[in-house]
Amino acid sequence: MADGNPFDHNAIDDIVHGRIRLGAMAYLSAVDSALFAELRDKVGATDGNLSAHLRKLEEAGYVRVDKSFANRKPQTRLSLTRTGRNAWRVWLDHIERLTRAAANPGREE
């Protein structure tokens, strides 16, 4: 949004904006960490679909994936990184500016 245009679609982070990734970012922003199954259930995704989206978030540096074992069962714990929390705040700020501009067309912020 370099020119200050709140309607600039290029200002929206596509990594965050995907439906499942958006849900994952929102949920993880509200907790310290979450187990894979917990997040899967919250966003309503399949294991494979969520895994693919989490890989994209991890590659962007937005999500940390910690794998361990609990009672001999594999456990995947997910959390937002500092970069991920910042990206989430930037995304929220842009959406807020966008909705304010839509509610008041023609007005400068």
What would your notes on this structure say?
The longest helix is centred in the last third of the chain and has 22 residues, at 82-103. This protein has 109 residues and is of the alpha+beta class. The chain has helices at residues 14-17, 19-29, 36-43, 47-59, 82-103; strands at residues 34-35, 63-70, 73-80. The protein has one domain (9-100): Orthogonal Bundle (Arc Repressor Mutant, subunit A). Helix 2 crosses helix 3 (36-43). The chain contains 5 helices and 3 strands, in the order ααβααββα. Strands 1-3-2 form a 3-stranded antiparallel beta sheet.
Helix and strand arrangement:
Elements: H1 14-17, H2 19-29, E1 34-35, H3 36-43, H4 47-59, E2 63-70, E3 73-80, H5 82-103
Antiparallel strand pairs: 1-3, 2-3
Helix pairs in contact: 2-3
Q: Give the helix proportion (percent range).
A: 40-55%
- Beta content comes to 15-25%
Strand order of the largest sheet: 1-3-2
**C-alpha Rg, in Å?**
16 Å
CATH superfamily: Winged helix-like DNA-binding domain superfamily/Winged helix DNA-binding domain
Query: Helix- and strand-based class?
Result: alpha+beta
Return the CATH topology.
Arc Repressor Mutant, subunit A
How many DSSP-defined strands?
3
The rough form would be described as: elongated
Distance between the termini: 13 Å
Average residue pLDDT = 90
Sheet of most strands: 3 strands, antiparallel
Low-confidence runs: none
CATH architecture classification: Orthogonal Bundle
In CATH's first tier, which class applies?
Answer: Mainly Alpha
Q: Please give the count of helices.
A: 5
Q: How many separate domains make up the residues? A: 1
Order of helices and strands: HHEHHEEH
